[in-house]
Amino acid sequence: MTLQWTAVALFLYAEIVVILILCIPFISARRWQSIFQLRIWSWMARFWNKVFLTMIIVLIVLFLDAVREVRKYSSKEIGTDAKVQPNMFDHLHMKLFRAQRNLYISGFAVFLWLVMKRVITLINQLAAVSGTTAALQMQADDANKAVEKYTKDNELLKRTLMEGVGDKATAEGMELLRTEVGKLKDELKSSENALKKSQAEADGTKKQMEGLAREYERLLKEHQELQVILNLETAGRCKRRVCSCRHTKHKFQQHTLNPAKNVIL
């Protein structure tokens, strides 16, 4: 394996390890967000888009080169030189095997690079939605407590007025409390609406992540099926070429032995 394909293979292994680490279930999205907010990641975020586009371009170029090599060695047939050089058949198929290996390595590297970027984006979005939901939940709890407190005070003032003990100042105070309770109820209602919206966004993000996981599994199965079909076709083609090479070699040996027999006679 050449230096460039060794680097692509190492990059592919690194992508697999990173994706497996990101899929660890007991690490929450907010924990991952706190990790991504470290100083080193903040410094690297400035160059992230450039690095991503550069790696995509390099991997796509290598993938297209691997496709070209596979087409080149798949369409090449054994000529008359195989009679003189019997090892040419093995050499040709060794080149084809290497081209197919490079095709799989570069293709998976491109695919997992896109998957890794999407997974990191979804983790950040889920962490942001979770943080907003928690903040809105705290605000709603505080508003509920305040409403309960002012409601009790309001009931106490009403009871005092009904008993005839209160005066004009008490009535004015109760009116102010009623106004404040109304405002708090409006704030509570808006907080509940925001909480419901955040929960709906969190559910949508979760469904999107599940859909991405199912799509990844489906693509992986399709790739495995295509690889099995390609291996079967390659094996059948190699078998036919081996038979053809043996038949040609047998005819060549008969042709070289017949003149010797004629000379002896």
Automatic annotation (TrEMBL):
Keyword Lyase in record: no
Limits of the Bap31/Bap29 cytoplasmic coiled-coil domain: 179-230
Coiled coil is among the record's keywords: yes
A single Gene Ontology CC term: endoplasmic reticulum membrane
Residues of the BAP29/BAP31 transmembrane domain: 1-133
Principal location class: endoplasmic reticulum
Chain segments annotated as transmembrane: 7-27, 47-67, 103-120
Single Gene Ontology BP annotation: apoptotic process
Pfam families listed in its UniProt record: Bap31, Bap31_Bap29_C
Keywords: Apoptosis, Coiled coil, Endoplasmic reticulum, ER-Golgi transport, Membrane, Protein transport, Transmembrane, Transmembrane helix, Transport
Coiled coil, from the record: 140-229
Subcellular location as annotated: Endoplasmic reticulum membrane
Family in the record: Belongs to the BCAP29/BCAP31 family.
Stated role: May play a role in anterograde transport of membrane proteins from the endoplasmic reticulum to the Golgi.
Designated name of the protein: Endoplasmic reticulum transmembrane protein
High-level lineage: Eukaryota, Metazoa, Chordata, Craniata, Vertebrata
